[in-house]
What we know:
The chain is α/β, with parallel strands linked by helices. It is about 40% helix and about 20% strand. The strands form 4 sheets. Strands 10-9-11-8-7-12-13 form a 7-stranded parallel beta sheet, sandwiched between helices. It has a 4-stranded parallel beta sheet with strand order 5-4-3-6, sandwiched between helices.
Amino acid sequence: MTAEARIQDMAARARRASATLAQLPAERTAEALRAAAAAVREQSRAILAANAEDMANASALSAAIRDRLMLDGPRVEGIAAALEAVAALPSPLGQEIDRSTRPNGLVLQRVRVPIGVVGIIFESRPNVTADAGALCLRAGNAAILRGGSEARASNRALHAALLQGLSETGLPEAAIQLVDDPDRALVGAMLRAAGAIDLIIPRGGRSLVAAVQQDARVPVLAHLDGNNHVYVHAAADPEMARRIVLDAKLRRMGVCGAMETLLIDAAFPAAAALVGDLLARGCEVRGDRRAQALDPQVEPADEQDWNTEYLDAICSVAIVDGLEAALAHIAAHGSGHTDAIVTADQDVADRFLDRVDSAIVLHNASTQFADGGEFGLGAEIGIATGRLHARGPVALEGLTTYKWVGRGTGQVRG
């Protein structure tokens, strides 16, 4: 069977499953997700063994990718907890967005409905198998998942737990399908499956997203890289700034919410301490001329550094002359993902939040909060950095569309 035929067959089964899901009471999908969470816990040893197999084959990969790939007991428990969190969220299906009554008495409503069949193409992170499957299911969609070959065994083990949850609660197993074959032709077939797959969501590095956008004939909800900034304003509390900077960069370096560039106001009195903290924690610092003057260990930054998502223990540092210079730097080099300001000046903070054109903007908080779970969304499929349909953490509402419902009393246009 050709790659196209295989994907068309999976999509046809997904379409039938999505039609079933759209008609189910919300409690049925919640029940399935709770059963899947129980299965993840029951099968944790098998999941960890599968992940150990993947990790053994990943020795040549970067530390950041290995961190995203690795599962341990707490991370497996986090996957199970995320399934339960999604189950506990109210279903968006049937939710009335707005209502109006026309002069002729016709009542119009916009109500949320599933998108239908969603394809998710992702790299490295095995938890995406569970998060994406759960969110699609709760929003009434069928999912076709294609993970990276580096996580193949882990994805297969987690998918088995999801299938157990579906089976135990009588939901169609075709609601969450896994493309388990590493043949890249299957990815191309997914991207060309217009009419069979309704939406493609890529989750991974810039090269993956760019390739999907270039080749897709299916609408794409894109998540580009997280070239995120923290701007420490002159009026920032020094101790707060130190805590936020260290967390934003070093809590987890391989996540898209990590800070990649630190902007320090030239009038901030403790700039050297911020740079020293990063260096003391083993982070390489690359800076402009004024940043290099703060510490002899700071390496010179070039133009490419300001545009790089390192996902590693590397940070660019620039000294800027006030808010306007910080805003100009972010506008020139940011990726529209997540940017933060640290300041005690509320007026400056409000101007920053208003003028930075990113999916997530934060005041006095770490960029590592760029996460659907931290936003109360249960989980996320990714952080969308575009401007259409959904933006920021894509969770249940981002996986729905709407239809217009008109209720009349015999109105005609004649």
